[in-house]
Write a structure and sequence with these properties.
- This is Molybdopterin molybdenumtransferase.
- Catalyzes the insertion of molybdate into adenylated molybdopterin with the concomitant release of AMP.
- Its cofactor is Mg(2+).
- Keywords: Magnesium, Metal-binding, Molybdenum, Molybdenum cofactor biosynthesis, Transferase.
- The protein is of the alpha+beta class.
- The chain folds into five domains: about 10-35 and about 200-345, Molybdenum Cofactor Biosythetic Enzyme, Chain A (3-Layer(aba) Sandwich); about 40-65 and about 165-195, Molybdopterin biosynthesis moea protein, domain 2 (Alpha-Beta Complex), CATH 3.90.105.10; about 70-160, Beta Complex (Molybdopterin biosynthesis moeA protein, domain 3), CATH 2.170.190; about 355-425, MoeA, C-terminal, domain IV (Beta-clip, Beta Barrel); about 440-450 and about 475-649, D-Maltodextrin-Binding Protein, domain 2 (3-Layer(aba) Sandwich).
- About 25% of the residues lie in helices and about 30% in strands.
- It has 16 helices and 38 strands.
- The chain has a six-stranded mixed beta sheet, with no helix packed on it.
- Helix 9 (about 440-455) links the parallel strand 29 (about 435-440) and strand 30 (about 460).
- Helix 9 (about 440-455) packs across helix 15.
- The longest helix is centred in the middle third of the chain and has 19 residues, at about 325-345.
- The structure holds ligand LQZAQKY5 and molybdate ion (MOO).
- Ligand LQZAQKY5 binds near residues 208 and 273.
């Protein structure tokens, strides 16, 4: 929902504006002040179910561990005073008592002076004994006595009762997260259950008429509900128990009843979507009716995440995350996770940070603290942080990033070469084994698949051919996939190489005109004929490609200076061109054969594009690069490429 293009002027007037944009720090402080301190709800859990929970109270040991004085070796329980004079040349003979103390057997006989009782490791020390001698240090003297050739100190090989854990000792403190080691301590004390902080129950609702749950077919103009699944998983990851209530359409009555019902049972409610200024943005209007004090912050000077809405209704947090998936995820992790963890009795998450350099200039909006999701790769002098440039609306911006950097609200950019701090999403940096920066092609995934199966991590960063070449020159990647046509020499790629780079031939991609099958304007024509026909038909709309794309050069040549309807629609990928034609936004465009095929479009071949790799020579011997080159040349990859419609070089 959000910006509804069909809204009437009157509806526009009724739109809510953000009342007051708060700083991130201010918004979080006000939110927390309205929620804490609060009592942690608690529950009793069986030991086996307690893993990961936070202890709700201190635990005092109810018993001694070990519960009795215990032998640590297989041997004989003795009185150490009897052996004071024992030595190699002067064995002391002890008479054996008529019992053997095994584990789990309480001894019946006293060890009197001059006697010994056979005892197993773990056996309880009999009355009278104060030490144990190892069986290796004794010799049998008939069946009823032993000779001992070593003295024994009092307490030798004995663990006294309570020496491990003493009854009454503080065993574990409230707030401790129960791991396997804590479970071990509790079990040793005989505790079968513990009182832990109950997981906060967090209801999750996605809002929007356009949302379809995964698993269902996708009608035109609909999208899959991404936020529902990702928010629910992030809640579980941070100590909560998510209750996903599905996607509710933009209907005030339906939404209000869903929100009210959610709050009867849940400790917290997280919605996503419909929080900016669109006419269909309803949730924040409803919040005012759900309980006091209501909205705490609506609008935060933060990017992504400006429309975030934080509210407290009758002491329960109610949050509306922005609809854009990366905005939703980022604000959830940054602003909601701290609150959730506190409600779950968990310590705050400690984020690891590393230093890295940004390879390109990053523009930023003045007045909003901007968080830029980045992928980390190894550069010549340390880590390089590549911004994942797909924006807040893309799920991969967040999901495939290693972490984020921060640009101050007062800066309008971060210049290329800036050394900055990156907050990691994982405890450690995971620098990939193979880094590919440049133009993306679905064929690439077919070649790197065997590397991934062999446990090598491959990171492919799509920045276009020229961006890839620049990264290769700076030594920030192993390979830069490129498809650059040189007008002068009329050849691909080779003229663009500089010293330190070498060309590895990749594959050819047939480019041509795509159109909907059955469209009489194109069926059976050559590319030149088809374009000529399209140019004289004013109802025929094209879709172009972005400046700098190899495909754009071809299109401009074909058009010979003409600017037909649709010329200024310039998406950045072959897939977007195919989607525009398949969905009737345009009637023709230029794409590659495999994409046309996958979209069920008609295709008129025009020219073969060369998709090759600029290899950084200095990195050629790296094992992952060798593995890539092997995979590229392998019969399997070539066959897979051919099946997908590419022609291996
Ligand atoms: N005129 C203005 N428009 C927008 C502004 C603004 O200040 N003025 N803010 C922009 C910003 S910043 C963001 S972020 C978005 C968020 O807006 P909403 O929270 O109202 O979200 P929607 O409009 O409902 O949806 C935005 C976008 O995200 C998709 N979406 C929504 N829910 C889901 C979901 N569960 N799974 C996947 N995708 C979802 C939705 O279809 C839209 O494409 O607003 C800007 N607009
Ligand atoms: O704040 Mo929105 O979250 O920029 O994308």
């Amino acid at each position: 929902m959000g910006s509804d293009m069909s809204m009437t002027p009157q509806l526009q007037l009724e739109q809510e504006q953000f009342l007051k944009i708060l700083t991130r720090e201010d918004a979080l402080a006000r939110f927390e002040a309205a929620l804490f301190p609060r009592a942690l709800p608690r529950e009793t859990r069986k030991l086996a179910d307690a893993l990961g929970a936070a202890l709700a109270e201190d635990i005092t040991a109810p018993v001694d561990v070990p519960p009795f004085d215990r032998s640590n070796v297989d041997g004989f329980a003795v009185r150490s005073a009897d052996l004071a004079a024992a030595g190699e040349g002067a064995p002391v003979r002890l008479a054996l008592n008529g019992e053997t103390v095994h584990c789990g057997i309480a001894p019946a006989l006293q060890v009197a002076a001059g006697t010994a009782t056979p005892i197993a490791t773990g056996g309880p020390l009999p009355r009278g004994a104060d030490a144990v001698v190892m069986v290796e240090h004794t010799q049998p003297a008939g069946s009823e006595a032993i000779d001992v050739r070593r003295a024994a100190s009092p307490g030798q090989f004995v663990s006294y009762a309570g020496s491990d854990i003493a009854r009454g000792e503080a065993l574990l403190r409230a707030g401790t997260i129960i791991g396997s080691r804590e479970i071990g301590m509790l079990a040793a004390c005989g505790l079968a259950e513990v009182t832990v902080a109950r997981k906060p129950r967090v209801a999750v609702i996605s809002t929007g008429d356009e949302l379809i749950q995964p698993g269902q077919p996708l009608p035109p103009a609909a999208i899959y509900d991404t936020n529902g699944a990702i928010v629910a998983a992030a809640i579980d990851e941070n100590g909560g128990e998510a209750i996903f209530l599905g996607a509710i359409p933009d209907d005030e009555a339906k939404l209000e009843s869903a929100m009210r019902e959610a709050l009867t049972d849940a400790d917290m409610l997280v919605l996503s979507g419909g929080t900016s200024k669109g006419a269909g943005d309803l949730s924040h209007l409803i919040i005012g009716r759900l309980g006091k004090p209501g909205i705490i912050a609506h609008g935060v000077a933060l990017k992504p995440g400006k429309p975030l809405c934080l509210a407290v209704c009758d002491s329960k947090p109610v949050v509306i995350l922005p609809g854009f998936p990366t905005s939703a995820m980022f604000t959830f992790h940054d602003m909601i996770v701290p609150v959730l963890r506190k409600m779950a009795g968990l310590p705050s998450r400690s984020d690891a940070k590393v230093s890295a350099t940004v390879p390109v200039r990053i523009a930023s909006e003045l007045g909003r603290t901007e968080f830029v999701m980045v992928s980390l790769v190894d550069g010549k002098d340390g880590l390089i942080a590549y911004p994942s440039g797909k924006g807040s609306g893309a799920i991969t911006s967040f999901a495939q990033a290693d972490g984020f950097l921060r640009i101050d609200a007062l800066a309008d950019q971060m210049p290329a070469g800036t050394a900055t701090e990156v907050t990691l999403f994982t405890p450690h940096v995971r620098v990939p084994d193979l880094v590919i920066v440049g133009s993306h092609c679905t064929g690439l995934d077919l070649v790197t698949a065997p590397l991934a199966h062999d446990g090598l991590t491959v990171r492919s960063i799509a920045v276009g051919s020229l961006g890839g070449l620049a990264a290769a020159r700076r030594g920030e990647c192993d390979l830069a996939p490129i498809h650059l046509f040189d007008d002068k020499s009329e050849t691909y790629n080779t003229p663009f190489l500089v010293e330190g780079l070498e060309l590895v031939p990749g594959w050819r991609r047939m480019q041509g005109i795509v159109f909907r099958k059955g469209d009489k304007r194109f069926e059976g024509l050559s590319a030149k004929q088809a374009v000529a026909k399209a140019l004289i038909d004013p109802t025929c709309i094209m879709v172009n490609r972005n400046q700098g794309a190899g495909t754009r050069i071809l299109i401009d040549r074909l058009l010979g200076g003409a600017r037909p309807e649709g010329y200024w629609n310039q998406p950045r990928s072959h897939n977007a061109v195919a989607a525009a034609v398949a969905q009737h936004r345009a009637d023709w465009g230029m794409s590659i054969a495999p994409v046309a095929d996958a979209s069920g479009l008609g295709f008129i071949p025009l020219a073969e594009e060369h998709y090759d790799f600029a290899l950084v020579s200095a990195r050629k011997q790296r094992p992952a690069v060798q593995a890539f080159l092997d995979a590229l040349g392998s019969g399997e990859s070539r066959a897979a490429l051919e099946r997908a419609g590419f022609r291996p070089a």
